């Protein structure tokens, strides 16, 4: 009976954290559905518009390692609560801003609050759930959190196009208040009766933990996995997807919003599948990463080779493949969790999260810059601009292969040898024959 109560408590705590993350994704992606309106409101060209998101993502990426350290020192509840409050303030400023400096400051606050949320929510999962369920709960958290994109793609966009800019962003700020109240009332770092955390680390111990986390090739494997799988889908969802579908392929704003909804819904299907795969096949997680990167590269290549407007079915395929990017990027967090001891997991997860968001802000800035040089929002300019993704994929794949080789060397020294995949497949076939 006590275990049932503990399980209920775990899901209640998780639900409060999930709500905070859903709202964080809503705040993060709110600018994506308002890109063309923002261009009019602030008289901003593609490069300036990209600058909004680049600054937001730059702040997010820059804070990931400090946030990981702060989680290890002050606890996740404090971080999630602070994040909800900061994002609420940022969205209020977005709602009332009519000049670029205030709007930019506001989006920086949104990025800072967003940075405090996701890895803080993930950090409490090992304390509340059995180790076997943590990979699945990580995927479910990441994917249900993406429902915040649906909130921005449909309700927020509806308010934006109906009641206007100020009403839309004030409604987003109101959601932040709800999240802050839920976290304050329910969210907790660990179950009641759990041993208290050890004494706070000294500055020297913090630096040593950061260095140790970075030096472990498993952490770097997580970083490159996160970098290679997250950025394409995130950049599409947060800023350039709607303008690309509308101006690049002649889709209506409503149709483009529906496509973003499809992206989130498809990701919700892929996430639990990926989570179960990583739990059952922990030695083959990197192959899942490489497969998703390869599929994304292939579909983007086909889409960019087809003269616009591309057929609807092909754009749907693109969105479905991009939907797998977010769930697969969560594999990077699983690498950080399994390759690092408990006392530096927050730091390691922060390092991993830098990868995807650094790739995302780089892509966002480059797409905006190329659009500006190529003449703005028209089909041929978008075809050129999206090419900036390919070098980033190449760098990420090389990073995954190098870090995987070094991580397997460390695992072999510790007694865990990863057999070549062909040998593993042959072994599985033999086992199936013997079972018959």
TrEMBL record:
InterPro entries: MFS, MFS_dom, MFS_Efflux_Transporters, MFS_trans_sf. SUPFAM superfamilies: MFS general substrate transporter. Its main location: membrane. The chain crosses the membrane at residues 48-71, 78-102, 108-129, 141-161, 167-187, 223-242, 254-275, 287-306, 312-336, 348-375, 381-401. Residues 13-408 form the Major facilitator superfamily (MFS) profile domain. It is found in: Cell membrane. It is a multi-pass membrane protein. Pfam families: MFS_1. Keywords: Cell membrane, Membrane, Transmembrane, Transmembrane helix. PANTHER family: CHLORAMPHENICOL EFFLUX PUMP RV0191 (PTHR43124:SF3), PURINE EFFLUX PUMP PBUE (PTHR43124). This is MFS transporter. It comes from Pseudonocardia nematodicida.
């Amino acid at each position: 009976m006590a275990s049932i109560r503990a399980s209920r408590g775990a899901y209640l705590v998780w639900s409060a954290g999930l709500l905070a993350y859903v709202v964080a994704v809503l705040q993060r992606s709110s600018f994506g559905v308002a890109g063309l309106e923002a261009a009019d409101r602030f008289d901003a060209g593609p490069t300036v518009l990209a600058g909004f998101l680049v600054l937001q993502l730059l702040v997010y990426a820059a804070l990931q390692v400090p946030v990981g350290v702060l989680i290890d020192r002050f606890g996740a509840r404090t971080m999630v609560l602070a994040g909800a409050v900061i994002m609420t303030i940022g969205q209020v400023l977005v709602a009332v801003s009519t000049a670029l400096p205030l709007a930019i400051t506001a989006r920086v606050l949104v990025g800072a609050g967003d940075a405090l949320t996701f890895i803080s929510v993930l950090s409490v999962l090992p304390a509340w759930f059995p180790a076997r369920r943590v990979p699945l709960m990580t995927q479910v958290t990441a994917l249900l959190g993406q429902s915040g994109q649906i909130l921005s793609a449909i309700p927020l966009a509806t308010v934006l196009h109906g009641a206007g800019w100020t009403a839309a962003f004030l409604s987003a700020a109101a959601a932040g208040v709800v999240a802050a109240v839920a976290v304050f009332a329910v969210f907790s770092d660990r179950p009641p009766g759990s041993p208290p955390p050890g004494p706070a680390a000294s500055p020297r111990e913090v630096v040593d933990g950061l260095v140790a986390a970075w030096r472990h090739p498993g952490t770097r494997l997580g970083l490159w996995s996160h970098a290679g799988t997250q950025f394409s889908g995130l950049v599409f969802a947060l800023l350039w997807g709607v303008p690309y579908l509308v101006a690049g392929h002649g889709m209506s704003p409503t149709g483009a919003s529906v496509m973003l909804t499809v992206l989130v819904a498809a990701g919700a299907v892929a996430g639990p599948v990926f989570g179960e795969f990583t739990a059952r096949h922990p030695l083959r997680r990197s192959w899942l990463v490489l497969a998703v990167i390869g599929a994304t590269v292939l579909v983007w290549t086909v889409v960019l080779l087809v003269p616009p407007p591309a057929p609807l079915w092909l754009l749907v395929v693109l969105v479905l493949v991009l939907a797998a990017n977010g769930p697969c990027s969560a594999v990077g967090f699983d690498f950080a969790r399994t390759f690092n001891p408990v006392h530096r997991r927050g730091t390691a997860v922060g390092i991993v999260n830098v990868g995807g968001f650094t790739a995302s802000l780089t892509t966002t800035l480059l797409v905006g810059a190329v659009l500006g040089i190529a003449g703005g929002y028209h089909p041929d300019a978008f075809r050129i601009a999206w090419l900036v993704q390919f070098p980033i994929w190449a760098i990420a794949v090389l990073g995954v292969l190098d870090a995987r080789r070094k991580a397997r060397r460390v695992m072999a020294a510790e007694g865990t040898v990863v057999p070549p995949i062909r040998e593993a497949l042959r072994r599985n076939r033999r086992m199936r024959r013997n079972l018959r």
